[in-house]
Amino acid sequence: MIGVLSTRDAIARAYAVGLDLVEISPNADPPVAKILDYGKFKYEQQKKRNEARKKQKIVEIKEVKVRPNIDENDYQVKLRAMKSFIGEGDKVKVTLRFRGREMAHQELGVKVLERIRGDMEADTKVEQMPKMENRQMVMVLAPK
Description:
The protein is of the alpha+beta class.
């Protein structure tokens, strides 16, 4: 901690020691600079960036497809799969596909999606409410 210096004095001090004058925080008033080895500084910054990249989790969207007249056992299997996806920290896109005359009874599809939402309510929040896209209804669940 030397204090506030003119740029010329700071560069002269850095040169006398055989190091570089590196601007650390240019937006501060006055700007903050350190006398250090620039090559070493860049290397440390790169290491920090790589470490941060390792620790970050990429959230994937897993898709589960269901039908309006899904059987109870099939429903339970899909529900278990959704819970495991949410447990891993991924989002779940529930796609309910209508075929043929099922389009006339869209309320059955809404009931299935409402049931899924109720069963998953403890560990998820609804990111996208059920909405129709052509012949399918889509809902997105995200972990709490």
